[in-house]
């Protein structure tokens, strides 16, 4: 009994007091900044393993980017990654960062479905479905609810059954072999419901985008409410994205 | 039997692999294994070559530290006797060969689909129609779990046959995670694309699989890496091991409803993966391991940081571990639960922790060392009971061992050269096998090039490929309520199995 208290005491305060302002340690690759420096754009575009970079003007699509950092290593004057982990948006286009863009990426309050805040603002129960996910985003979603990130303090929880859920969180590029299960899980969630895509694999297929073993039809049939970039997505990217989606004003 | 004997990461001309007639090939490989627990099949696969199928079998010998490679050419229509009928080590390998090429085996006891690969031979096999083993009895019932599980984990389908609360039989069906990675390795020609693929085989083993890939790739290109690269890979592998073991201890505590252990181990994983981020910008070590270079040299500042991390980690780890291993309610859940015996693991051919838990000494770090493991002189942690407790003990001791190795490594940081683009290209008509002891166990990558140096096959084997069968064996005669803790104590990969 006393040992338990001792152990608890020794942990100190682990939780991150403010998840919207916390700093991540070290050289996290978050929102990139692209300068107007002149470089050989063809080489830059060609080096990216997932065709996330386009030219004229140079843009990086964070829905495709695996955050490998190679572009910034090869062209340090052109591209740098900041530690800003707020990468989520409800609009796919906002994940595309253009030359000169320095503004934060936001969840656009004007285009969030109106009922989301009203119905789920106080409590959002999510069913996670891994559909070809490599267990990195899955680990980070689990971490979102460890004692440090503690997302459940905001009323956001992962539940075991889709019937108890308000929406689904998809990780992975959606394999052909999982396509039916994803659809069935989504159908089992009562209306109204949200769809959140976590990680580059889910958003664009990532490095698997042109594999014939995928079936991403689900995404053309349904509206996605939130895109959470990363490979894997950082817990703070996920948590901040969800909080913005729910339009939580009190953190 | 005729075979060529090679070292881990040694590149040889494809023509040096003896080509035998199937009957000799089979007899020879079975003989190599018979009565030799120090040997096991690390890879056995086929690929199409001018209208026929070439089978390549690789048997590792842990005592002489060599891998015996032989081959045979077969067609896809003749009925062949299976290796598996005589040695169950080959069960998965032959299922895969059958699934990919349709080779009919006359006596394979369990010739079911393995992963419903996109390019499978028989497209009429679909994932919703897996032929589960059935027992007709009024007393027994079936429990189906998955593909989507209760927690945030990868998909797979478990079918239990139970007598009341007791599990009689478990069959695990895979394939849901299949992304066609091996084919993408051939399709995508850029090195960075392939490295990214390797990092995404199993995201919890990004370092393990990318290290297997770059070791292989450098050898295939006839390139000798700088010692600083071997240093970085070894450090990253041990950090990945520590992080995953710590996370698994947290998971095991969750499954026995020991909340304090769950929280403490869970939060102790954070500083380790955050250190990986401080070093390479990614908590799971993606972006860190590259062929012929490293974008993030390991510096003295990082070494000092890691020393600080250990200073904070160790007392808290020791305190909770001492508590957990003395807690009667925890011990009673772990001891004698989910037992797999030495004879069983030998028959299945398990690797890594799932071998060492039952007294079978299999650890690539000691038996076929690559990178800096040759100089570490690693002593594998071996347990004998094959139960949840043994698997948990291995993690506890390996974490301490990894800390020891890491401290020793960072006391002597080599000089990192300025990173340069890797421009070497693969040699033509070569074969390379690369073995790495990831945190779960042995990772094996094989590659073959054609006469112009293009990849003709890239073969990946995650340790889970062997070890899932051990989980199915472990839960027999256990209560179904003990399934989660058995499963967590193995902590196997679905994506690594399905590719
Ligand atoms: S960091 Fe992103 S954009 Fe840059 S090369 Fe890597 S994947 Fe491409």
SSE layout and pairing:
The complex is a heterodimer of chains A (251) and B (499).
Chain A: H1 2-11, E1 32-34, H2 41-47, E2 53-54, E3 59-61, H3 70-74, E4 79-81, E5 96-98, H4 114-120, E6 124-130, H5 136-144, E7 156-158, E8 167-171, H6 176-188, E9 194-198, H7 200-204, H8 217-221, E10 226-228, H9 235-245
Parallel strand pairs in A: 6-7, 6-8, 8-9, 9-10
Antiparallel strand pairs in A: 1-4, 2-3, 3-5
Helix pairs in contact in A: 5-9
Chain B: E1 4-6, E2 11-13, E3 19-20, H1 22-33, E4 39-49, E5 52-61, E6 66-74, H2 91-101, E7 141-145, E8 157-163, E9 166-173, H3 181-187, H4 191-199, H5 206-220, H6 227-255, H7 259-280, H8 300-324, H9 328-334, H10 342-348, H11 353-356, H12 364-367, H13 373-376, H14 388-410, E10 430-437, E11 442-449, E12 455-461, H15 464-474, H16 483-490, H17 494-498
Helix pairs in contact in B: 4-5, 5-6, 6-7, 6-14, 6-16, 7-8, 8-14, 14-16
The structure holds iron/sulfur cluster.
Iron/sulfur cluster (SF4) is lined by residues 47-50, 52-53, 60, 65-71 of chain A.
If you had to describe this structure to a student in words, what would you say it looks like?
The complex is a heterodimer of chains A (251) and B (499). Chain A is α/β, with parallel strands linked by helices. Chain A has a domain at 109-246: Rossmann fold (3-Layer(aba) Sandwich). Helices cover 29% and strands 15% of the residues of chain A. Chain A has helices at 2-11, 41-47, 70-74, 114-120, 136-144, 176-188, 200-204, 217-221, 235-245; strands spanning 32-34, 53-54, 59-61, 79-81, 96-98, 124-130, 156-158, 167-171, 194-198, 226-228. Chain A has a five-stranded parallel β-sheet, sandwiched between helices. Chain A has a three-stranded antiparallel β-sheet with strand order 2-3-5. A two-stranded antiparallel sheet of chain A has the order 1-4. The model of chain A has no long low-confidence stretch (mean pLDDT 91). With 499 residues, chain B is an alpha+beta fold. Chain B folds into two domains: 4-114, NADH:ubiquinone oxidoreductase Nqo5 subunit (Beta Polymerase, domain 2, 2-Layer Sandwich); 181-467 and 485-490, Cytochrome-c3 Hydrogenase, chain B, CATH 1.10.645.10. Helices cover 41% and strands 16% of the residues of chain B. Chain B is built from 17 helices and twelve strands. In chain B, helix 5 (206-220) runs antiparallel to helix 6 (227-255) and helix 7 (259-280) runs antiparallel to helix 8. The radius of gyration of chain B is 22 Å and the shape is globular. The two termini of chain B are 32 Å apart. Classes of the chains: A alpha/beta (251), B alpha+beta (499). Chains A and B meet through helix 1, strand 6, helix 5 and helix 6 of A and helix 3, helix 4, helix 7, helix 8 and helix 17 of B. The complex binds iron/sulfur cluster. Residues 47-50, 52-53, 60, 65-71 of chain A line the site of iron/sulfur cluster.
